[in-house]
Structures are given as C-alpha cells and as structure tokens.
Predict the 3D structure of the following.
Amino acid sequence: MNKAILLDRDGVINRERNDYTFRIEDFEILPDVVEALKLLQKAGYLLIIISNQSGIGRGLFKIEDTEKMHGHLLKKLEKEKIHIEEIYYCVHHPETGSCLCRKPDSLHVEKALARFTIDPSLSYFIGDKERDILAGEKAGVKGILMESNSSLVKAIEPCIKK
Ligand SMILES: [Mg+2]
Ligand SMILES: [Zn+2]
C-alpha cells in the first residue's frame, strides 16, 4: 500500500487571497512549496490536492478557468520534477443540496485512497482550515492544521521525521 500527503490548495500551495482564485495572474505559489513537496516525494509519499471551489457552483467562474490554472500549477511543479497524482475539487454550491465532496465531507479523500491504494494510517491531510482536517479524519487520515500562507516546510515536519 502507498502513503500519501493530501493537501488543501488555497493557503497551503498558493496564497490565500481571501477571495476566489481562478486567474493565473492571481495564482501565487507560496515560497517554500517546491522544497516541501520535494521533501515529501523523497520520503516516498504520493501527493494529492483536494480543494473546495464553490465559486464554480456560485457561477463566479468556470471549470475551464480552474482547469487552466491547475494546468499551469502542474507544469510549474513538473519542471521541478514534482508529480501531483491528482487535483480533486468540489465545484458545488454549499447551499444547494448536499454533495459529499465538499470538505468537511470526505468523498474526495475516499476516492483518492481507493484509486491510489493508500493506507490512511500512514498518510496526512495538510490544510489551513478545520474542515480540511475533518475531511481527512473521517477517512482515517491524520490532520496537520497550518496557518494560511505559512511555511509548508515547517508543517510537514511530522511527516518526514521517523
Ligand atoms: Mg485553504
Ligand atoms: Zn461537491
């Protein structure tokens, strides 16, 4: 079985702007993300991003905007030899019906665990909101809560020392 680090996107990978981020020009990768992801990869973890993007369900931007931005992110990371297995994101509006993929619900976590044969007990969910931690915990994945836009290298310490 594999082990993985599940990462929230906004505030963990790219700067949390306290607004919807859907334009490449607003997508600022945080300073030590590349270093942190390299360390995690070297330690044998698969890397997966799980994000809430309700701005799509709210009609503020389109799936294509998000896909384009994610393409840009993946290309930048690939240049650093960092491979992200998948970026899962919930597109739903929180007030219209209940999907099971918007964090704190755990559908995307469970999908990732099944698809990539991940042992949850060896894995972590790193996020900057309580709902990130809850989504992981529902699927048996330990959470690491970090402050928005803070050092990811620091946040991953429990994942790499052993
Ligand atoms: Mg966040
Ligand atoms: Zn959803």
Notes: Residues 3-160 form a domain with the Rossmann fold fold (CATH 3.40.50.1000). The mean pLDDT is 97.
